[in-house]
Amino acid sequence: MTGPIPVNVLTGFLGSGKTTLLRHILADPAFAGCAVLINEFGEVGLDHHLLQMVDEDVVLMQSGCICCTIRGDLGRAIRGLYDRREAGAIPAFGRLIVETTGLADPIPILATVMSEPVIRHHFRLGNVIATVDAVNGAMQLDRQPEAAKQAAVADRILLTKTDLAAPQAVAALEARLTALNPAAPLWRSANAPPAAEILIGSDAFDPATKPAEIRRWFDMARWTGSAAWHRHEHDVNRHDRTIAAFVLEVEDRVDWTVFGIWLTLLLHSRGDDVLRVKGLLNVAGVATPVVVQCAQHIVHAPSHLDAWPDGDRRSRLVFITRGISRAEIEQSFAAFQAAFATVAPVLA
What we know:
This protein is an alpha/beta fold. It has twelve helices and 15 strands. It has helices at residues 18-26, 74-87, 107-115, 117-122, 137-143, 145-152, 167-180, 196-201, 210-224, 227-233, 256-270, 326-347; strands at residues 5-12, 35-39, 50-53, 58-61, 66-70, 96-99, 123-133, 156-160, 186-189, 243-250, 274-281, 290-295, 298-299, 303-304, 315-322. Helix 5 packs across helix 6 (145-152). It starts with a strand and ends with a helix. The model is unreliable at 41-51 and 221-240 (pLDDT under 50).
């Protein structure tokens, strides 16, 4: 593998099957030789996997994967792992998987990978995979804000233990997760998760695979504009109480400076509640679409597609927010555009 090393984040609430899924991924020969970081307070003992100690912090697993425990700062752990890789102290790895503790907010992990200069030079964000327990998931979404955030920011969702839950409960939870995060593909698993290639083979943040991700966002945009979505917004049994997903659509071309200032101010004032933003902008003076992605206060570097994936040239941004409505975002952006249009001639 050439270029920055992809980082896949595996998250999910306590007991939702993260480690079972991790074992499944590492058992695939195509993904042997990964590096794995596991939170110090994680639920899994790895003794039965260990083959040999590399140093006091790192072990080599039977799959060929490097595994170590995070005992402090994540950024320091990632940098140290890379330094040992380059020095030849541990085998080379072409992918890093971070398994979070069940109570973790995944946003700080994404922020570390996306914002730390040294890490950004050697690594890139792959995707976020969230496991949700079909038996306890609905209760956890109600009572644990971390569980809702884990599902809301995920690029892939795996509904586990579906063989242990009533079919009606599974269907209701699946509908709730789809309403919570419509852009994320969702699979059911009764001890048979999807192939590792499906989960992490095409990374959501890899420029080479962006068109497929963007088509999913567009599908979401079309669905959220339907009457069915309108009903879901007002049905508390089908939508999370505080976390909402919606699409901001802009018909006219967007001034990049105006958008940048507006987004900066939005994240400065409400960044804790803007869980994810991702989509395409039709920027004035730019022939191809600009890809925008951010998570809370962290903005991913914008990138360009070679062409529009479909005939629709409107700017479309998928927002996943907590306590912020579509109307608030639309009114804020429209007001900011209007204010800038009034001031711009004076500045000129």
